[in-house]
Amino acid sequence: MIQTKFFIAFILFQTSLFAQDTIPFSIGKNNKIYLKVRVNNSDELNFMYDTGADVCAIKKSILDKAAVKIDGTEENVGVGGVSLVETSSKNEINIGSFHKKDHKLLILDYQNDLEDGIIGWTYFENKVVNINYGIKKIIIHNKLPEIPKEYMKLKCKKIDNLFFVKLTLVVKGKKMSDWYELDTGSDGSLMISNLLGRKRQLFGKMIQIGNSVSRGSDNNVIENDLVLLDELRIKNYRFYRIPIDLATTESSVENNDIIGNNFLKRFHLFLDFGNNTIYLKVNNLVHSYYLESLVE
Questions:
Q1: 49 pairs with which residues across the strands?
Q2: Domains, the chain, ranges and CATH?
Q3: 228 Ramachandran zone, left/alpha/beta (phi>0; psi -120 to 50)
Q4: Half-sphere exposure of residue 270: CA atoms within 13 angstroms, side-chain side
Q5: Alpha-carbon dihedral 18, 23, 26, 32, rounded to 10 degrees
Q6: Could you give the CA distance from residue 107 to residue 64 in angstroms, rounded to a whole number?
Q7: CA neighbor of 274 nearest in space, from 121, 159, 126, 52
Q8: pLDDT per residue over 205-228, tens digit each?
Q9: Pairing assessment for the beta strands 128-132 and 81-95 based on DSSP bridges
């Protein structure tokens, strides 16, 4: 009888230790990850999952749909710098089986028909987030599961409460390694800030194939040269002639270099937030086009 009780307790412990939840997602035409979210028992809303944000936010135009009440303000760091935005406290946010009460939301007055709001990385803080683009599901683990050997491990650096990984760029035979923000909320592949571009003397060194504009949730705009990067290295991985954004709008903002989801979607990912570590392996999207306009 004692042995039976011990066995049951052990099974319950194991179930708790390796418990996981699965959340389906879709990929928008803008390469971003979208989740179905309910706010204050609303109908389902389309929220973007953004590892480049440490807060959750909602569009001002849909506050009534979600019964969100403005009751404060705080500073928000966006593409254009720091701005003062309205906030709402004590909101209920449901994503799949995840339910959080008394959650703060930033109120953002931005134009994007594809999304109703943003889920920042802190919503799943202290969890391990497995993003699988093959089955289009996010699997949330309480503990780091056994990682298959084909995954590559990368240590992250935490800067301003966001996660950065070290990448090596090769331009005209010259190698340069810098830290780039891990940003699923960016629809680009790689964005080099104006500050880093000047520091590394990159202007005029790569083939320009066009121009682009980056717009943040603060509605500020950054103009870019769209250029072909000679080579990008992530440990043993090598990628050649990738279209990237090189910011031409003058700025001295630091830590504004980004690896976006047009590149990240080419990997299955384990994001171990608690240990500042990610694991990645290439998936079936690795050879997909970076720019649809290049497809005839």
A1: 119
A2: 22-141 (2.40.70.10), 152-282 (2.40.70.10)
A3: beta
A4: 22
A5: -70
A6: 12
A7: 126
A8: 999 999 999 876 666 789 999 999
A9: unpaired
